[in-house]
Amino acid sequence: RAKETGRNRFQFFTEDMNRKIDERLRLQSRLQRALQRGEFIVHYQPKVDLPSGRICGAEALLRWHPLGEEAVPPSKFIGLAEETGLIVPIGDWVMRAACAQSKEWEAHGLPAISIAVNCSPRQLLDPDFIERMHALLEETDIDPGRLEIEVTEGTIMQHPEEAIAILARMKELGLKLSVDDFGTGYSSLSYLKRFPIDRLKIDQSFVRDLPDDRDDAAIVEAVASLARSLGLRVTAEGVETAAQAEFLRQHCNDEAQGYYFSKPLPAADFAALLRAGAVAMH
Ligand code: C2E
Ligand code: MG
Ligand code: MG
Ligand code: MG
């Protein structure tokens, strides 16, 4: 009897695993066609300068709407795109789309802001990455100082020496660099001081329980002070409430981003917000 249960359980497992593998393969083949089918769009989430309440930047966030199907969130496909290497052409597309968008807003006389684009390990470590970034900057004629590349600590720490060298070359191109999801990775302080970066983005997990959670409050204050000492700017991610925004204004008073100000928006809606200049602080 025990044996039978065991066997059944085994069959149950393999069926479940087969189903997962099938789903993955299906997702992969849909992902492979998504670029040429034009199924991707970029949404833009405002970054707000806390002292003034003005929109000072946008983070470009990829959205996938497969034809005739429901939208697939990044959490469901970025990992697979990374594993298969598809993130390289997809990431190039996002980068180009964001630069073109920024140029268009500029041409329409909208306030000059910076645009942040996420960059995954495969993209950063791709042998031609720097060359393609250089070509993109020439082609789109965008001010590299207004293009910010977001990499996570994990991305850098996979191959720290290589990554630091690539980041240094990106700085030479005039780009701005930030460390995304800061505090969730494994970079030691001795590495942090060697990263040629401009900004730390405090991960939303430290912001979520502000201002009541004393540990998170202490961490956020410490990161803000560390950043100040290292000459880095700070962005707080995932700000959802007025109380969080107020805490951050008092203790770090730099830049913030989150649903409290605005969700990521289609380009046209973002432009309308940018034209208005500031987001409503309730
Ligand atoms: P991320 O770069 O850390 O982006 C922030 C994520 O937090 C976004 O999720 C954003 O929609 C979400 N967010 C913003 N404000 C709030 C808030 O107040 N509360 C909560 N709970 N969430 C908030 P999204 O768009 O689903 O993207 C998830 C991740 O996927 C990104 O995390 C980034 O790592 C990756 N990703 C997105 N677009 C791209 C891309 O074009 N290229 C690459 N390589 N990765 C991307
Ligand atoms: Mg990001
Ligand atoms: Mg983040
Ligand atoms: Mg993230």
Automatic annotation (TrEMBL):
Domain EAL, residue spans: 24-278
Source domain of life: Bacteria
Protein name: PAS domain S-box-containing protein/diguanylate cyclase (GGDEF) domain-containing protein
